[in-house]
């Protein structure tokens, strides 16, 4: 196994994790999967990640906050963001905390975001039921709930 090799050319789990974290934030679960895929022993990976967490170099809270902000900037809704954070190993309490932080700090308004996202993609609400259904599917695919979608369909083009 690579993590157990004694040669100077073999990267330790800590070295590999730091190399990954230098590019972008990762959740602990993502780092565990990546390091395990490189052949590092689970015990050495856990130990290295514990050390990085203690030193503040890896934080699931920081990852969740940055991830949430980036997805909001892309025009994604809360349902999709919550699901993606869960897939990346972030627990429900931390996801809830990140959403509360976003609501407080940035004043995230999901209804307005749904309107902006829809107005960027489509010129109007659509003349036929088929066109309106297409807009609904678009917003649902972006992770907006039914109420946010209805609001956006009614108000996305109010300022135009």
TrEMBL record:
<comment type="function">
    <text>Modulates RecA activity.</text>
</comment>
<dbReference type="GO" id="GO:0005737">
    <property type="term" value="C:cytoplasm"/>
</dbReference>
<keyword id="KW-0963">Cytoplasm</keyword>
<dbReference type="Pfam" id="PF21981">
    <property type="entry name" value="RecX_HTH3"/>
</dbReference>
<feature type="domain" description="RecX second three-helical">
    <location>
        <begin position="59"/>
        <end position="95"/>
    </location>
</feature>
<dbReference type="InterPro" id="IPR036388">
    <property type="entry name" value="WH-like_DNA-bd_sf"/>
</dbReference>
<dbReference type="InterPro" id="IPR053925">
    <property type="entry name" value="RecX_HTH_3rd"/>
</dbReference>
<dbReference type="InterPro" id="IPR003783">
    <property type="entry name" value="Regulatory_RecX"/>
</dbReference>
<feature type="domain" description="RecX third three-helical">
    <location>
        <begin position="111"/>
        <end position="152"/>
    </location>
</feature>
<dbReference type="GO" id="GO:0006282">
    <property type="term" value="P:regulation of DNA repair"/>
</dbReference>
<dbReference type="Pfam" id="PF02631">
    <property type="entry name" value="RecX_HTH2"/>
</dbReference>
<comment type="similarity">
    <text>Belongs to the RecX family.</text>
</comment>
<dbReference type="InterPro" id="IPR053924">
    <property type="entry name" value="RecX_HTH_2nd"/>
</dbReference>
<dbReference type="Pfam" id="PF21982">
    <property type="entry name" value="RecX_HTH1"/>
</dbReference>
<feature type="domain" description="RecX first three-helical">
    <location>
        <begin position="15"/>
        <end position="52"/>
    </location>
</feature>
<protein>
    <recommendedName>
        <fullName>Regulatory protein RecX</fullName>
    </recommendedName>
</protein>
<dbReference type="InterPro" id="IPR053926">
    <property type="entry name" value="RecX_HTH_1st"/>
</dbReference>
């Amino acid at each position: 196994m690579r993590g157990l090799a004694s040669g100077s050319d073999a990267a330790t789990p800590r070295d590999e994790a730091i190399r990954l974290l230098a590019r972008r934030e990762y959740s602990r679960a993502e780092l565990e999967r990546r390091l395990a895929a490189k052949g590092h022993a689970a015990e050495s990976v856990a130990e290295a990640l514990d050390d990085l967490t203690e030193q503040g170099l890896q934080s699931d809270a920081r990852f969740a906050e940055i991830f949430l902000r980036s997805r909001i900037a892309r025009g994604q809704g809360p349902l999709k963001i919550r699901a993606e954070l869960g897939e990346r190993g972030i627990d429900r309490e931390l996801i809830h905390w990140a959403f509360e932080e976003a609501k407080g700090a940035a004043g995230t308004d999901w209804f307005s975001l749904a309107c902006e996202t829809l107005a960027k993609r489509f010129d109007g609400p659509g003349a036929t039921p088929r066109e309106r259904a297409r807009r609904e599917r678009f917003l649902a695919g972006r992770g907006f709930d039914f109420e946010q979608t209805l609001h956006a369909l009614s108000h996305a083009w109010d300022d135009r």
